[in-house]
Amino acid sequence: MRTGMWENTVTAASGQTATRSHCFKPADAAVSNGSPAAVRAETEKAVSKSGCTLKDFKLENNALTQTMVCGSSTILQETRFHGGDSFETTMTSTDGGVTKVSQIKGRRTGDCKAGE
Fold it and tell me: Which of 45, 92, 96, 111 is the most exposed place for a label (fewest CB within 10 A)?
């Protein structure tokens, strides 16, 4: 993924959407664009901070697939990256036999503003 301003739109299982923009900085890109082992290590750290456990992780070519367990929920996250300027993620969460699917679409909209 390239540095710059990114707009992410989340569509929840209920159909509600929310769009947010943020500056994806060089330090963020260094972590996200590292080797699969480095990205996995950073992901494990982030997931454990939220009380979850990373069970499966596969990063190759332009695809990332990971499975996390958070309490009684299992979350499968599948992301496809498109040339460093956009991505699409499908998150499938299963808890007590109930499955919910949400989508995240992100796209680079330009350079970060000064000071961000």
Answer: 96
Stated length of the chain: 116
Q: How far is CA 31 from the centre of its chain?
A: 13
pLDDT (tens digit per residue) in 3-58: 999 999 999 999 999 999 999 999 988 888 889 999 999 999 999 999 999 999 99
**Exposure pattern of 30-63 as b/e (b: 16+ CB <10 Å)?**
eebeeeeeebbeebbeebeeeebebeebebeeee
Q: Do 20 and 8 touch, CB atoms closer than 8 A? A: yes
80-100 burial, b at 16+ Cβ within 10 Å, e below that, comes to ebeeeeebebebebeeeeeee
Contact, 78 vs 90, CB < 8 A? yes
Closest CA to 22 of 82, 83, 110: 110
